[in-house]
Design a protein that fits this description.
post-AAA+ oligomerization domain-like, two-stranded parallel ribbon, single chain, about 55% helix, mainly alpha, 2 strands, about 300 residues
Length: about 300
């Protein structure tokens, strides 16, 4: 029989062949009432705990330790032990706990499950336009020790993937926030990341650019790599001109409204549409322009 324990998600840390032959039991973090009960036992135990120290404990002190411990009994007992030393036979108060705890213990592993859980929470809160939740998850990642530039990269990605042309300013602002953090460092630079997070949460949303790119990429991977149509090739040499490079090309700026009716996609992809703008934010205006251009092309091709 093999029995193992890990603080990580076994899906990431345990070999798949071994995992398929095991039964997995998930141990959840302790709740605050359970942590408080453990602390009370430690205070009452005169042999293995602090019962002989003659301590008194303020009513809210144990609850404060439980909040700091974040479900970790060992962390709670460590804070209690340090607080007992600071109190030196007196009363353990919430102020004593704050001095002993310094900082809340936040479960986080930059390469493990919690890393992905938190970035998923941030991304989905932004996508659902919830500024409060977005700011909370972003702050929790930073306070847990995440690299602020990693957070900045995720915000830049979100600006293109989920906001796109509905608000092109979002990409500019997130890049500026990254540069601001680079320039200011910590702790001043975090404010720029907070500003960008709130902007993204409240921006109009569109994944049209993301969808269009993926569809175009799928065609690039699946369709034959056809040659570039001759009329849209450059012809820098006489030989190229003789071979038909650039022949029949219409220069858009010489046409009314800078519109010309000519094909640009390879033969097998003629008529393919990748970009379908959303009807939100600036992209609603982009959609209007695109539809007007497509109607114009259809009209140009109708028999007269």
């Amino acid at each position: 029989m093999l029995i193992g324990a890990t603080t990580e998600n076994p899906s990431f840390e345990v070999n798949g062949a071994l995992l398929s032959r095991c039964r997995v039991y998930v141990l959840r973090p302790l709740g605050e009432p359970e942590v408080i009960e453990i602390l009370r036992r430690a205070l009452a135990d005169g042999e293995r705990g602090l019962g002989a120290a003659g301590l008194s404990v303020a009513a809210d002190a144990l609850a404060h330790i439980a909040r700091l411990a974040n479900g970790d009994a060992r962390a709670a007992l460590n804070v209690l032990e340090l607080a007992a030393q600071l109190a030196a036979g007196g009363t353990i108060t919430a102020a004593t706990i704050r001095e002993a705890g310094q900082r809340r213990t936040l479960l986080y592993d930059k390469s493990g499950e919690e890393h992905y859980n938190l970035i998923s929470a941030l991304h989905k809160s932004l996508r659902d336009s919830d500024p409060d939740a977005s700011l909370y998850w972003m702050t929790r990642m930073l306070d847990s020790g995440e690299d602020p530039l990693y957070v900045a990269r995720r915000l830049v990605r979100f600006a293109s993937e989920d906001v796109g042309n509905a608000d092109p300013q979002a990409l500019i602002l997130t890049l500026a926030a990254k540069d601001a953090y680079d320039f200011l460092g910590s702790p001043e630079g975090e404010l720029a990341l907070a500003q960008a997070t709130l902007y993204l949460a409240l921006a109009p949303k569109s994944n049209a650019a993301y969808v269009a790119y993926n569809e175009a990429r799928a065609d690039v991977e699946a369709a034959p790599a056809e040659p570039v149509p001759l009329h849209i090739r450059n012809a820098p040499t006489g030989l190229m001109k003789e071979l038909g490079y650039g022949e029949g090309y219409q220069y858009a700026h010489d046409a009314p409204d800078a519109r010309v009716d000519q094909e640009h996609l390879p033969e097998s992809l003629r008529g393919r549409r990748y970009y379908r703008p959303a009807d939100r934010g600036l992209e609603a205006e982009v959609a209007r322009r695109l539809e007007a251009w497509r109607r114009w092309r259809v009209e140009q091709r109708r028999p007269t």
